[in-house]
Every structure is written in structure tokens, then in C-alpha cells.
Amino acid sequence: MSVPGPLAAATVSRPSVVIASAGRLELLWRAVEALEPERARTGAQLVIARSAPLEQEAQVRERLRDATIVWTAPGAGIPRLRGLGLAAATGDPVAITEDHLVAGEGWLEQLFGRVAEGVDIVGGGMQNRVGSNAISWAAYLSDYGFYSYSRPTSAAAVPLLTMANMAYRKRDVPRIAEWCSEGAWENVVHDRLAAEGRSLTFAPEARIIHDHRYRFGEFLKN
């Protein structure tokens, strides 16, 4: 997929993409691999904010040599990881997702293209993996059902958008990073930005795939 026309003209700095990561390493490898074609096309900086045992750090840094990696001890919550990753991102715009999700084709280009068209904040649509079992569907509906790509486009001033599938202009990223680091989830962040006059847009075509194959016991723990 080609980058929408305005992107080349409007983007001055290199964009960034942040992955908040606290899962198994194979999930992180898969998430990074799915992004590689678009990273090559867009030149996006890759930022990994990882919460895991220290003994994994050397392996991650060796495998992802061109990434900016921020490491913290196990147990960091998702908002804190998002905050750490966004704080380390230097590009404009900045996209963000999580390691248990897989970027759909053209994900970054769709988000970056919308920002280039003048949108302040854009969030894509979530999709469950085709062929998922009942447990995976239950997990998807529980976590991302409200953010489905197939839901009607909302006329609300603050549409439901998940930070697992977002892009922000750099001008807002430092404050978003600070709020996330303090524990704020996306609903709080987006309400604050909307109150400041920022426009939030739902882009269902910018899809992230939920592809987490839960075992029953693992699902119950989550």
C-alpha cells in the first residue's frame, strides 16, 4: 500500500511506532516482524517499552539492534509502559500498540496518512483473528469489542479509541506520556485532549489484529 499523498509533503521528521511489551518474547518478535515492511517504507523509529526480567534484556537488544529500548522490572502496568515508550519516541507522528497484537496491512500508513491530512489524534479499528477459538473470541470481545473496526462511526466528540491502536502528533506526546506514566488509561487521556480542543478521529481501515491464543486457565487469570 502506498503512503497517502499528503504524508510525504506534511511529514518533516521521521515517524515513530511504540510497542508496549510485557508478554512472552515470541509475541514481541511476531509484533515486530509484522511491522517490518511498513517500517521500511515509512522509515519509522521503533520503540520497545518492555517490562520483563533483566536477563532477557541482552537478547532483546541483540535481536532488535535498530530499536530504541526502554526496560523496566516485571509488573509495570500497561499505562506505565505506554508512558515510557511515548517518552522515548522522537518522531512525528507517533503510533502505539502492544506486543500481543499484530498490525494489519497498511496500518502505519493509514494512521500516518490521517495525521498528514490534519487530524490531531487518530485511532484504528480492532479485529479478531479469523479462525480464532471460542476462548480467544471471549478475550477479544472482553478487551476490544467496543473498539471493533466494524462498529458504526460515532458522532461523539470523544469516540471510543484504544491506545493499542493509535497515532498522535508529537506536540501532544510529552503530556500523554506523563499522564500514562501516572497511571491514566486512554479514556482519561482522550477526555483531557478533547477538552483542550484536539480532534479525535476513528479510522476503521487502520486495523490491528487480536491474535492471542489463550488457554482456558490463562484466560481466567486475565
What does this structure look like?
There is one protein chain. The protein has helices at residues 5-10, 25-42, 57-63, 78-88, 107-116, 134-144, 173-181, 186-195, 216-221; strands at residues 16-21, 45-51, 68-72, 94-98, 101-103, 121-128, 166-168, 200-210. It has 222 residues and is of the alpha/beta class. Strands 3-2-1-4-7-6-8-5 form an eight-stranded mixed beta sheet, with helices on both faces. Strand 2 (45-51), helix 3 (57-63) and strand 3 form a beta-alpha-beta unit.
> What best-fitting shape do the alpha-carbon axes yield?
globular
N→C terminal distance: 36 Å
Q: What is the structural class?
A: alpha/beta
The overall pLDDT average reads 85
Q: How many helical elements?
A: 9
- Spell out the helices and strands N to C: HEHEHEHEEHEHEHHEH
Main pleated-sheet profile = 8 strands, mixed
List the helices and strands and how they pair.
Blueprint lengths: L4 H6 L5 E6 L3 H18 L2 E7 L5 H7 L4 E5 L5 H11 L5 E5 L2 E3 L3 H10 L4 E8 L5 H11 L21 E3 L4 H9 L4 H10 L4 E11 L5 H6 L1
A few lines on this structure:
This protein has 222 residues and is of the alpha/beta class. The protein is built from nine helices and eight strands.
Key traits:
9 helices; disordered N terminus; globular; 8-stranded mixed beta sheet; 22% strand; alpha/beta; 222 residues
